[in-house]
Amino acid sequence: MILHLVKSSPFSHLSLKNALNRSAEQDLFLLLQDAVVAVCVESDLHNQLLDLDRQERLYVLKEDLSARGLTNKYGKVVDYKGFVSLSCHTSASISW
Amino acid sequence: MKIGIINQSFPHGSAAGRESLDAVLALSAFSEDIAVFFIDDGVFQLLPDQDPSKILQRNYLPTFGMLELYDIEQVYVCQQSCEQRGIDPQALSITVEALTPTELAEHFAQQQQLIRF
Amino acid sequence: MKFAMLVTSSPYGEQGSSSAYQFAEAVIAEGHQLVGVFFYQQGTLNGNGLLTPAADEVNLVQAWAKLAEQHGFGLDVCVSAALRRGVVDAPEAERAQLSHYNLAAPFALTGLGQLAELSAACDRLVQF
User: Fold this and answer.
1) What's the number of domains chain A is made of?
2) Has UniProt tagged this entry with the keyword S-adenosyl-L-methionine (chain A) (predicted)?
């Protein structure tokens, strides 16, 4: 099970779209840095992200939300300790 | 250790491809299980007939030939990325296996560590 | 669990190295072992002791140095990637007949073999 670490906004970059396209059924996603916007504002990936969230596979980094003055509409919020814990519970990570 | 190296960047516009290749060759001395992936614009890394001296860059394309010499046999390209860019995987400068996005995800899941360039 | 980190982003101008530093702090706070941090590509700029942020801003170079000294892990900087970006230690400065060097202690210039060693020594490798 891979932990996909996505850092770029889906409004400017294809990283999130491409990572979703190349993920396996159990993989987890953690949105950090500019990518946190993906669960705050509706993008083309909205439906895919909602599906991920329903399967409890979508996480968003608390510190990066607060830093940008953003509030997530869905996705499970974790802090850096949660980030470490996600790394432990997945077999490997890809930093996109 | 099963290590996957993912190449996603265009050659010469950044040093990512060249520095990825250096890392792959160094890691291969310690691990016998290295897989190299070329996806998105990374598939352009392997395009023949590059002449980067025109833009003050070093031509490291021949160094990809070292992969075989270093016994790195798992070299994959993303079939979809090639199709989107009009590239025939068989016409690339080294022998590669083309994988669908689903197959790529399966291969990624087999790795213990993944580094992206 | 044993963690190793690979930092490939610049210490200023993008968030990657700050994220890496905060992750390193959390790894340690959670009781895991950080076996080492390897700096590659633009990440090698984290070893530049001449970085001079404003007084009210975080000096990431000094922050890494302090964390590494407190918790006994190495800050390994890829020598070839560093030299190409003007991050040089005293022996390399002498070899290349340069008048200055700038690698901050306890960062150390090492080969890519050190990345392989860290990779073999950890349970999780996380890239920033």
Assistant:
1) 1
2) no
